[in-house]
Design goal:
Elements: H1 5-21, H2 32-38, H3 41-53, H4 59-64, H5 66-81, H6 86-89, H7 94-121, H8 132-143, H9 148-158, H10 162-188, H11 203-227, H12 231-251, H13 256-270, H14 273-301, H15 309-331, H16 353-366, H17 369-396
Helix pairs in contact: 1-14, 2-17, 3-14, 5-12, 5-13, 5-14, 5-16, 7-8, 7-10, 7-15, 8-10, 8-16, 9-10, 9-17, 10-11, 10-16, 11-12, 11-13, 12-13, 12-14, 13-14, 14-16, 15-17, 16-17
């Protein structure tokens, strides 16, 4: 079925606007399915029905709205970057940095090795995870990510203490930022025009270009805000900035997520306080719409080149969770994290729209529907497993995850919840 790009774009706009108006449910009892529903699982199923189901959002339509998808991906990245204001970052205990790095690195290594082993045991996966090296690196990088808002929702649902809940959400934020930076490596390996006459950028040059693009986009906002300092114009300036940053990422085969994250990280550290608050307010207001677009497009982009994906994705999710748990349980002594509960690695097991956005970024660049399907299934397994795992953490010890007397936050107030 051939669908007008305008019609497809209008449908995405309607879904996004409805997502911002839907009331948030209040769950009395915590169940795994509750987390999956609250995190946007029905939107993925809707996209699956509109895409592979009835071909309303077929591949030509998805390619035509790819710039809008890139903007939604960049919007989530911007929400993550807005958390990293230096005056809050410098107050994060070193133990928290080490804990996040330990769990995320263990998940990266475990899933990447599991993917490599799966390709040897099931050669049919080679047709789904292409190109192989970037696909393996992408699966590993996304395994390092968590879901800050999903984790925050979950800890409130199970009734965690305020300090412990903030520590858990902070760990999820650091892990997701680490994963986004790691993803720049497989994306930098992309070579869209191998036969072109112009010289190709190496992967290191592509990473440097990503950082430069983020800085340039951030300075665009600073310049626009100085020219039009009125409060009502700052939201438009932010939209123009993210359009510029996501456009650079999409056109230059970079990561819109990372470019926009770097841009907003620069903005919240350079712009005056009133403008920083406007940035966070605008991002918070429209993040549900961006999440809705990402989940809907991800559902429409799913592909199943081989049934082995249905086996590999859950096993990869199990390997990720087991690696995070084992790394913290047996590595906390070596890193002087003895005050951390032994099962603390399970607290950030849940993943959300940020992980899906990173997988969608890979799918847009490499046309990798098989990798995206693996990521989405892995996220679903992580969300289903998160409630019992978090109860296990609470059952072992109710103590805070750090020794800090007053846990810092990466941004001010509850406006920190900008990305799932």
């Amino acid at each position: 079925m051939n669908v007008s790009p305008v019609l497809a774009l209008a449908g995405l706009a309607v879904v996004g606007l409805l997502a911002t108006r839907l009331p948030r449910p209040r769950w009395r009892h915590v169940a795994s399915l509750d987390v999956l529903l609250a995190a946007g699982g029905p939107l993925v199923l809707l996209g699956l029905a509109l895409g592979p189901g009835i071909d309303l959002l077929d591949r030509p339509a998805l390619r035509s709205i790819a710039p809008v998808t890139a903007l939604a991906i960049g919007w989530l990245g911007a929400g993550l970057g807005a958390r990293f204001e230096w005056r809050y970052v410098r107050r994060i205990p070193r133990a928290r940095w080490r804990l996040a790095l330990l769990g995320a690195t263990a998940a990266l290594a475990a899933v990447a090795l599991a993917a490599r082993l799966a390709l040897r045991l099931a050669p049919a996966l080679g047709a789904a995870w292409v190109p192989r090296l970037p696909a393996i690196l992408t699966l590993g990088a996304i395994a390092a990510a968590s879901g800050p808002v999903v984790v925050a929702l979950l800890v409130r649902m199970v009734g965690m203490g305020r300090r412990t809940a903030r520590a858990t959400e902070l760990g999820a934020t650091l892990e997701t930022a680490y994963a986004a930076l790691l993803l720049t490596v497989p994306l930098a390996l992309h070579r869209p025009h191998p036969s072109s006459a112009g010289p190709e950028l190496g992967w290191l040059a592509a990473i440097v270009f990503t950082a430069g693009s983020g800085a340039l986009a951030g300075m665009v906002y600073v310049s626009l805000a100085r020219l039009r300092p009125a409060h009502e114009d700052l939201g438009l300036a932010l939209l123009a900035t993210l359009l510029f940053g996501a456009g650079i990422g999409y056109a230059a085969d970079l990561s819109p997520f990372v470019v926009c994250a770097l841009a907003t990280a620069l903005i919240v550290n350079v712009a005056p306080a009133p403008r920083r608050h406007v940035v966070r307010q605008v991002l918070t207001r429209w993040t549900p719409a961006a999440c809705a677009v990402i989940l809907l497009v991800a559902g429409a982009s799913l592909a199943l080149p081989t049934g082995w994906i249905l086996v590999a994705a859950p096993l990869g999710a199990v390997a990720r969770i087991a690696a995070k748990w084992a790394a913290v349980r047996y590595g906390r002594g070596l890193l002087q994290l003895t005050a951390v509960p032994p099962d603390a690695g399970l607290a950030t097991a849940a993943q959300g729209a940020a992980a899906v956005a990173l997988g969608l970024n890979f799918a847009i660049m490499y046309d990798g529907g098989g990798v995206l399907t693996t990521v989405v299934l892995g996220v679903a397994v992580a969300q289903l497993a998160a409630p019992p795992l978090l109860r296990l953490v609470l059952g072992t010890t109710p103590a805070p995850l750090t020794q800090a007397p007053a846990l810092p936050e990466l941004s001010r107030g509850r406006s920190t919840e900008l990305t799932t």
